[in-house]
Amino acid sequence: MKLIKAIIHPYRLSEVREALTEIGVNGLTVSEVKGYGRQKGHLEIYRGTEYAINFIPKVMLELVVLDEQLEDVVSTIASSAKTGKVGDGKIFVSPVDNAVRIRTNESGEAAL
């Protein structure tokens, strides 16, 4: 099993979720996050005053998938989140040793 963390633009969330549903992903967790990378933030003007926005709002998706689903899920996230501009985000993949479904006490792949 693998844990996938994807940080993407908030406005791309619907497209990514729909694409993942089409390939059979039945659950994910979404968190609102802020950060910066090559985008470096930007300036905004509010009521005539200029403000530096150093941390850009993003969303982070977290999902655990079977090893055989990994490539499909990563490529689906990458293609549906891509705009072709700086700040499209990142995808991180980590191994998962175990998972437990609390309601039934199932563990391993059965918990997914």
Automatic annotation (TrEMBL):
<dbReference type="InterPro" id="IPR015867">
    <property type="entry name" value="N-reg_PII/ATP_PRibTrfase_C"/>
</dbReference>
<dbReference type="InterPro" id="IPR011322">
    <property type="entry name" value="N-reg_PII-like_a/b"/>
</dbReference>
<protein>
    <submittedName>
        <fullName>P-II family nitrogen regulator</fullName>
    </submittedName>
</protein>
<dbReference type="Pfam" id="PF00543">
    <property type="entry name" value="P-II"/>
</dbReference>
<comment type="similarity">
    <text>Belongs to the P(II) protein family.</text>
</comment>
<dbReference type="InterPro" id="IPR017918">
    <property type="entry name" value="N-reg_PII_CS"/>
</dbReference>
<dbReference type="InterPro" id="IPR002187">
    <property type="entry name" value="N-reg_PII"/>
</dbReference>
